[in-house]
Design a protein that fits this description.
The complex is a heterodimer of chains A (405) and B (392). Helix content of chain A is 48%, strand content 15%. Chain A is built from eleven helices and ten strands. Classes of the chains: A alpha+beta (405), B alpha+beta (392).
């Protein structure tokens, strides 16, 4: 995220010697891709089925932190690798090899949702306290926006943080919080002025556990939620009852939280888009392998025109989503703030991922419906993308409004 | 950190850069001034005036990618891409674009790429100057996508080929001065027996047998041409005898990319037109664009258009770099031709009754766009190619 608000002076031009890889990626990106992919295949993929039952272990994030995979585009002084924004995409694409949507989501919440605001808005002290251990994987982070009564309509949230002397007192509840049942801290969206809508919103970074690993007074995980998919990821409903935080827990500016979150969502959506095209690509590869082996009526089913054309369509959609995400990332990484394109890319990629998942289930037939082929899981996992990080309908509204409609 | 807002600033998306943007502005001004106002008239006349070729030539637009020694501008395919995209975006006529591009990007490139020096000098300077108009003849009444079954024959007698057969759906076919024509030079069927000859309209036995009426592309002329014992000198053989299939393939990539780029321009135009209309037109007390259903329609259209642009520009970049890009080009062709048709249809829906009326140009956009999934290789052929690249 370091370059997300860059000054645009170092605009990346197309590299006509870049070969088949996209021009936003350098050889360093490709080297990292190779090593991270190998790690994901070796240390995450073998556990994908087990983690559906147990959630991904916190030790896996610690391990990713040790290897530097959590801090790819954060500055070195906080333990990051100092890379540019495009490493976020490489990371998201590599994670698709884990075969576990839930694990990918848990990690992405850490690296692309909760930590970027701490990095960009945080005080030196907040960065030392949260960003540094976050990048090491010593602390797990979550992001608290959605509430039982307010999701897409962020301005309608009701969790309050009322100033009381040198402290704020937090009351309210958050739901659908990824990493919420185990997180050490939360980047929390609350109303410091409950009478205002947008202008009353402030971000906080709040410890959920004390130094002994016990939940802070007044904070409880009121529910561990069961979901359609993403089973490897824990999702919590969180309750705050007179949770007291010092005044310096404010992240960014008081009353500017809505805009801070609007910014955070851009990076989140772009990375979600990358996860979607990469996930779709993994599903298609797996299904392609099947279509070449599985025989019916005397030949591999992939040799039937109907099946072959399905692959042509899937591959085209995936390539379009990928190029769209890359060109939008190029803008974002160069210091533009292309809300319209990011919104479109997220909408497009999450839809095509769902379409590809469904088509893969169809091609795999009965096997596709069975657990052991893991496509039905991908189908369930990927469905979240049209809801999370802004629903399709919210995306369409944002895009339409960007045209003045 | 202060509040960050999208100020609308956007850098030019690669592979285009500043020099291309200058050309884009020049093309836009020309198209808006000298093409767009006449489109209705040309559509009704079922052709645009032949003068348009010479006018475009005067401004250098026909020779953008050809070297200066042939009268061209010495640019690259990227310059041509700008021209094609802008022609679609500001001109709004599939027919005009088709006629001009069939000449510059479909008929002339094979001569440039496969012709001898003498052949180039014979046709290209005149073509680039707009004095001679070219067309490419591949499709026949009995063979379209399946080029291996071409039936037009060219039999060699000494220094002459005798050509018999017919070509159809030939853009510029009615007015073309020279036809880069695929013929069978070997009895055996298949890809191996095809050769290209350059035929000229004054040759005896060369006859434009019909001017075809079409669903759209009204301002371009589409001809059926027949050949009865046309004697073609052997020096008009383009490339190697029986090596014509290679020429067909070489041209397809650029033709398909151009179709994709044209569609990107056409989509941009449709979205701009539709946004303006939806913002102006009132119903039930507010602009129709303020209804969520319409706003979402527009958002869907725009998303499809921008995804198409990203896919196409990357394929163009690969092509420009000389990379193997058959997969990306086929994808871009497949996606964009459907996308522009869908967008044109959505635009028609938003424009309602006005969209259905001729004067708004929207119904024309729908009719023009419908050719996309057929011409330059059908959707089904694109999928076959893609399936093959995936080992299926």
């Amino acid at each position: 995220m370091a370059t997300a608000t860059g000054n645009g002076t170092s605009v990346i031009k197309p590299d006509f010697e870049s070969g088949r890889k996209h021009f936003i990626f350098s050889q360093e990106h490709e080297d990292l891709r190779e090593s991270m992919q190998a790690w994901v295949k070796k240390e995450l993929w073998p556990h994908r089925n087990e983690w559906e039952e147990t959630y991904w272990p916190t030790s896996a994030m610690k391990r990713a932190g040790e290897l530097g995979f959590l801090g790819l585009c954060f500055p070195e002084e906080y333990g990051g690798q100092g890379g540019d924004y495009f490493y976020s995409l490489v990371r998201a694409e590599c994670m698709s090899y884990s075969g576990s949507g839930g694990t990918n989501m848990g990690f992405a919440v850490q690296t692309d949702m909760a930590l970027p605001p701490v990095h960009l808005l945080g005080t030196e002290e907040q960065k030392r306290k949260y960003l540094e251990p976050g990048l090491k994987g010593d602390k797990v982070a979550c992001l608290g926006i959605t509430e039982p009564g307010a999701g897409s309509d962020v301005a309608g949230i009701r969790t309050s943080a009322i100033r009381d002397g040198d402290e704020y007192v937090i009351n309210g509840s958050k739901t659908f919080i990824t990493n919420g049942t185990r997180a050490d801290f939360i980047v929390l969206v609350a109303k410091t002025d409950p009478n205002e809508r947008h202008a009353g919103i402030t971000l906080f970074v709040v410890d959920l556990k004390d130094e002994n690993g016990e939940k802070v007074p007044g904070f409880t995980v009121s529910k561990e939620l069961e979901k359609m998919g993403m089973h490897a990821s824990d999702t919590g409903e969180l309750a705050f009852e007179d949770v007291r935080v010092p005044a310096d827990a404010v992240l960014g500016e008081v009353g500017k939280g809505f805009y801070h979150i609007a910014w955070e969502l851009q990076g989140e959506r772009l990375v979600a888009a990358a996860g979607c095209h990469a996930g779709a690509e993994r599903m298609m590869e797996k299904t392609l392998e099947y279509a070449k082996e599985r025989e019916a009526f005397g030949r591999p089913i992939g040799k039937f025109q109907a099946i072959r054309h399905k692959f042509a369509e899937m591959a085209t959609k995936i390539e379009a989503a990928k190029q769209f995400t890359y060109s939008t990332a190029w803008r974002f990484g160069n210091g533009e703030y292309p809300v319209r394109e990011i919104t479109m890319a997220k909408l497009y990629a999450s839809r095509i991922a769902c379409e590809v998942a469904d088509e893969c289930v169809q091609i795999l037939g009965g096997y596709g419906y069975m657990k052991e082929y893991e496509i039905e899981r991908a189908y369930r996992d990927v469905r979240l993308n049209r809801i999370g990080a802004g629903t399709d309908e919210v995306m369409l509204d944002v895009i339409g409004r960007s045209y003045g409609l | 950190m202060s509040v960050v807002k999208d100020n609308g600033a956007r850098a030019t998306l690669p592979p285009f850069g500043e020099e291309h943007e200058e050309l884009r502005q020049t093309v836009r001004r020309f198209v808006q001034k000298e093409i767009a106002p006449h489109v209705d008239e040309w559509e009704a006349a079922r052709e645009f005036p032949r003068d348009l070729f010479s006018r475009c030539a005067e401004l250098g637009f026909l020779g953008l990618k050809f070297p200066e020694e042939l009268g061209g501008q010495g640019g690259t395919h990227l310059h041509d891409a700008v021209w094609v995209e802008e022609l679609a975006r500001s001109g709004g006529s599939g027919g005009v674009a088709a006629g001009l591009n069939a000449h510059t990007s479909i008929a002339m490139p094979p001569i440039f790429k496969f012709g001898t020096e003498e052949q180039k000098q014979r046709w290209l300077p005149a073509g680039i100057a707009g004095e001679k108009i070219g067309a490419l003849g591949i499709t026949e009444p009995g063979a379209g996508s399946d080029v291996a079954s071409l039936a037009t024959t060219a039999v060699r007698h000494g220094d002459t080929y005798v050509v018999n057969g017919a070509k159809t759906f030939i853009t510029n076919g009615v007015r073309a001065d020279f036809l880069v024509c695929a013929c069978r030079t070997k009895e055996e069927g298949g890809h191996g027996g095809i050769s290209f000859l350059v035929l000229e309209r004054e040759m005896a036995g060369y006859e434009v047998s019909r001017k075809l009426e079409k669903m759209g592309w009204h301002s371009s002329d589409t001809g059926e041409i027949s050949f009865a014992d046309v004697e073609v000198p052997a020096e008009n053989l383009l490339g190697e005898e029986n090596g014509g299939f290679k020429l067909i393939m070489a041209n397809f990539a650029w033709e398909r990319l151009l179709m994709a780029i044209g569609a990107v321009g056409a989509m941009q135009r449709l979205i701009e037109t539709t946004v303006a209309y939806a913002g102006d037109r009132e119903a039930f007390g507010r602009p129709i664009g303020k209804f969520q259903a319409i706003r979402h329609h527009v958002a869907e259209m725009a998303t499809k258009a921008e995804a198409s642009r990203a896919l196409t520009y990357n394929a163009l970049r690969l092509f420009h770099e000389g990379q193997d890009c058959i997969q990306e080009v086929s994808m871009a062709k497949l996606m964009t031709q459907r996308a522009v048709l869908e967008i044109a249809d959505q635009s028609l829906q938003i424009h309602g009754g006005y969209g259905y009326m001729r004067e708004y140009g929207i119904e024309r956009a729908v009719r023009d766009a419908r050719l996309g999934p057929i011409g330059g290789g059908t959707d089904e052929i694109m999928k076959e190619i893609l399936g093959k690249t995936m080992g299926l």
